[in-house]
Amino acid sequence: MARTRTPVVSGWFTEEGGEREFRLLGTRCPACTTVFFPREDSYCRNPACADGVPTEVALSKRGRVWSYTDGRYRPPAPYVSDPDAEWEPYTLVAVELAQERMVVLGQAAPGVTVADLAVGMEVEVVPGILNEDAETTWTTWHWRPVEAAR
Predict the structure, then answer these.
(1) What is the pTM of this model?
(2) If you ran DSSP here, which 8-state letter would residue 116 be given?
(3) Where are the alpha helices (DSSP H) in 9-124?
């Protein structure tokens, strides 16, 4: 039986078009042009803006590493995880999107470690898998160094 692909958070990224078309989705206020991620669909969060209902916008596919770190231990409670499962370290990357003037956090693509990253390095957003169980593949986004894609 095939697993159902389900986004971890609906509406935060595209699912169609494969890796080439994959993008994070934010919103932009038409009045002040401020971009938000995570998205804000009801009102403009910019305190200097008096008006505007944000509209959906695809964010830049590429950005530059602003910071990074690794998670080498299981977080303490209230984090929920299977205590009998072996802990797998992961790498977190904060990426600056210059056009949107924001930093977006996410996991690095599988196999990318802190040794593969450097501040200022160009990375791109790609589809990823956060977790799988018998029925569901939980999808998310990952950051991958551009050089690794070629």
Answers:
(1) 0.88
(2) G
(3) 18-21
